[in-house]
Predict the structure.
Amino acid sequence: QMQLVETGGGLVLAGGSLRLSCVASGPSRFSNRGMGWFRQAPGKEREFVAAINWSSANTLYTDSVKGRFTISRDNAKNTVYLQMNTLAPEDTAVYYCAADRRAYRSLVLSAPTEYDYWGQGTQVTVSS
């Protein structure tokens, strides 16, 4: 099992930045799992944002955040980050981190069904 706790959300003006963190704990090893960030806006389905494989060799972003968001991880700290720059009102959502259900996968996947542990989420609100 793995517990995930997201922090770093908040209210920011359009054009601003936030850095989300997700700390993992529990018996399952963080360092051998890919990690993903997803978000869900009110009235919308949960959508993929970014993911990174266990070794940081591969990353994947949804088109709408490319060039603005950066995912990274620190395996020594059991933490995955999402640096979000040039935020826009359409980025407003609850952001969730999740762990890949398979260990040591080099591929980075966007489907929520490939992730089996999820955090509680952190709210990001971008005002115009």
Notes: The two ends are 40 Å apart (CA to CA). The mean pLDDT is 97. DSSP finds no helices and eleven strands in the chain. The longest strand covers residues 93-103.
